[in-house]
Amino acid sequence: MKLLSKYSILFLIALSFLISCKDKRNPNNQYMANKDMYHSLGYETYSENPIFKDSMSAQKPVLHSVARGKIPYDYPDSTEGYELAKMNLKSPLVKDDKNLAQGKYLYSIYCATCHGIKGDGQGVLSQREKFLGIPNYKDRVITEGSIYHVIMYGRNLMGSHASQLRENERWQIVQYVEKLKSELK
After folding, report:
1. Residues 152, 160: contact at Cβ < 8 Å?
2. Cα 135 from chain centroid?
3. 56: burial class by Cβ within 10 Å (0-12, 13-18, 19+)?
4. Distance from chain centroid for Cα 103
5. Mean pLDDT across the chain, nearest whole number?
6. Domain around 144
7. How far apart are the C-alpha atoms of 53 and 61, rounded to whole Å?
8. DSSP letter string over the chain?
9. pTM for the complete prediction?
10. pLDDT tens for residues 123-161?
């Protein structure tokens, strides 16, 4: 019994030496009959791929899919879309001091240079005559929906700010613009 255990210990030591001395640059034996299962083949983008009907490896997204983090905006970039948003679109945010303060902060970054700190259309760019005809909020019939729509798509010389502002930030600016409009009367 003692003799058997000595031989088994020696065998294990010899086996461990053999395993540890293996050349790691050469691959191990592969036990897959089909090598495609062991090393999958990648297809080049826009190359032919027999799996799909049209034989293209890059496919269009599923119909009506929405990208992660994006919220669909159902009003089109047109005069009709503007009017629909003006009549129907309402803010989902609670009107409170926190949202108003954040709206003021964002307004000072993105809007005040043109529209002015008071919303009177006398921003720095207007005073330097870089852009002329920037409207005073008191002269406009605006609603939550129309302000949001203009931030989304832009209007006249104003470009879209949708790429710079998330949805809730747009609504916070809307709250602050409404406050400025009420103070201009």
Report:
1. yes
2. 31
3. middle
4. 20
5. 83
6. 79-184
7. 15
8. -HHHHHHHHHHHHHHHHHHHTS-TTSPPPP--SSHHHHSPPPPPTTSB-TTSTT-BSS-PPPTT---TT-----S-SSHHHHHHHHHH----S---HHHHHHHHHHHHHHTHHHH-SSSSS--HHHHTTSS--PPPGGGS---HHHHHHHHHH-BTTBPP-TTTS-HHHHHHHHHHHHHHHHHH-
9. 0.65
10. 888 888 888 888 888 888 899 999 999 999 998 888 999
Please check whether residue 127 lies inside any domain of the structure: yes
Given a cut of 80, is residue 16 above it in pLDDT?
Answer: no
- The total domain count for the chain is 1
44-60 residue pLDDT tens = 777 777 777 777 767 77
Q: Judge contact between 103 and 114, C-beta under 8 A.
A: no
In a domain, 129, yes or no: yes
